[in-house]
Design a protein that fits this description.
- The structure is a homodimer of 288-residue chains.
- Helix content of chain A is 36%, strand content 21%.
- By secondary structure, chain A is of the alpha/beta class.
- Chain A has helices at 7-19, 35-47, 75-84, 95-98, 124-139, 151-163, 193-198, 201-214, 220-234; strands at residues 2-4, 24-29, 50-55, 89-91, 105-109, 143-147, 169-173, 238-246, 260-267, 272-279, 285-287.
- The interface between A and B is medium-sized, with 31 and 31 residues.
- Strand 5 of chain A pairs antiparallel with strand 5 (105-109) of chain B, so a sheet runs across the interface.
- Chains A, B: It is found in: Cytoplasm.
- Chains A, B: Keywords: ATP-binding, Cytoplasm, Ligase, Nucleotide-binding, Pantothenate biosynthesis.
């Protein structure tokens, strides 16, 4: 595995790879790799000649009061995991290299952001779009891999690729789950034993909502009402939101007549968990 | 010459070209080609294996009340000129193809724009940045060619390439001039005979300012004062601005201790002419 810290080196390497007619799969991360990331790497590995993994904790996507300084890092463990999972190039840029000075050109994501988690993280997706614009131009991948756990991020990447005409295939990868259905998350360790027992109810409630659509229901309001009741009856966690929106546009719908996302966020004592399910107008799961 | 109207077709073609190890030079234009454009094409032709010319009148860079609807077009003449000058691929996208819907991601150029012509064209360079971001991702050039006549545009493209880490060499090309030094412009035809006689004074005045630096002057204020007097004595045109700024940062300078641009805009009866000269701290011309 090549470990590169220099933007030019990555670009030179990728140019050579492309001259050889080989394809590049890209997994952008902020490091502290968990099973979700490894699934992205494995998927990229199976679909491309070359896999490039980037690890960069992007300051632009952290808001004031968010956990930039305490964001967990373990470079040595990440390197080993990357190598074990067949990564060809590990790109580890510094902040000084990515942002040698404040950018002259600001990106504002004006759609798909004022819903779900975006509501409480103003500017977050602007920072995501900025770093991905840079990373896409550095890595020049054929395919880029993102986890459906953060479905809103996938929707924003979809907008970025379409708006800017990137010749990149976005590959959303299904959320990795525990045996009982709880979405894997580094935050799950913060759950008490009781909370951990209840947390699978989040995905269960979303699946129950999806099942309603499969059974003929087309009203978002009735589905959200039902999912809310279900979830409240199964956990003491405080519901932050349960939303049903078109996907990937993330606009509100009066009737389910197109692909949608049903998503929830729940506060526990020391962790806020999110999960979602994406399905078509007939309740058939389409992504994730 | 290949004439392509489809974004995908251009991307497929360029991918193939790159696999063959050939280099791509790109000349983005709004058409109605004149000698300035032809010089860009010729320069690109001499420095690359493949030359791609785009013609697209970009609505995003026209402000309210600007001349989008009356912007001159002559596709047949442009096609012939492109073919005669050795263009390999002429890319002619429609507005519907470039902007199938309003973009979800807005670009704001926050530096290099509140000076020179940018002052009177709010949002203009945001539109330029948006279309170039798209075109760069479609054409994926090794080198991109821009005329120094619009030095501020060159400065903004420089910022775009640096900020977004495009692996593209920006090639500024010297302004094409009439024998008496007047910068070529499609707007020159709107000058009266008397105005046409006087107009070379614009470049003469800027060169006189540059000569002051070569002779040891380092004060922008004294140079601007002198250039203004010179120009006022040589033409009845009304001066819009004469500015001396760092280049390519386009920030004001107290003393000339770095590369700078000395630029002017002059209103005549039916035309507003612009011109500039870029030189180093010793008055030596560096670009353009």
């Amino acid at each position: 595995m090549k470990v590169l810290g220099n933007i030019r080196d990555v670009q030179q390497h990728v140019k050579q790879v492309k001259k050889e007619g080989r394809t590049v799969g890209f997994v952008p991360t902020m490091g502290y790799l968990h099973e979700g990331h490894l699934k992205l790497i494995e998927t990229a590995r199976s679909e491309n000649d070359i896999v490039i993994l980037s690890i960069f904790v992007n300051p632009l996507q952290f808001g004031a009061g968010e956990d930039l300084d305490t964001y967990p890092r373990d470079e040595e463990r990440d390197r080993n995991l990357a190598e074990e999972h067949g990564v060809d190039v590990l790109f580890l840029p510094t902040t000084a290299m990515m942002y040698p000075e404040p950018m002259s050109i600001q990106l504002s994501v004006t759609k798909r952001t004022d819903v779900l988690c975006g509501k409480s993280r103003p500017g977050h997706f602007d920072g995501v779009a900025a770093v991905l614009t840079k990373l896409f131009n550095i890595v020049m991948p054929d395919q880029a891999y993102f986890g459906m756990k953060d479905a809103q991020q996938v929707a924003v990447v979809d907008a970025l690729i379409n708006d800017f005409n990137y010749d990149i295939q976005l590959v959303p990868v299904a959320t990795v789950r525990e045996e009982d259905g709880l979405a894997k998350s580094s935050r799950n360790v913060h759950l008490t034993a009781g909370e951990r027992d209840e947390a699978p109810a989040i995905q269960e409630s979303l699946q129950a909502g999806r099942q309603m659509v499969e059974d003929g229901e087309r009203s978002p309001a009735r589905i959200i009402e039902s999912v809310t009741k279900f979830l409240e009856s199964r956990t003491r966690g405080r519901i932050d939101y349960i939303e049903l929106l078109s996907y990937p546009e993330l606009t509100s719908v009066d009737v389910i007549d197109r692909p949608v996302i049903l998503a929830a966020a729940v506060f526990y004592e020391k962790a806020r968990l999110i999960d979602n399910v994406v399905f078509d107008r007939n309740g058939k799961i389409t992504t994730g």
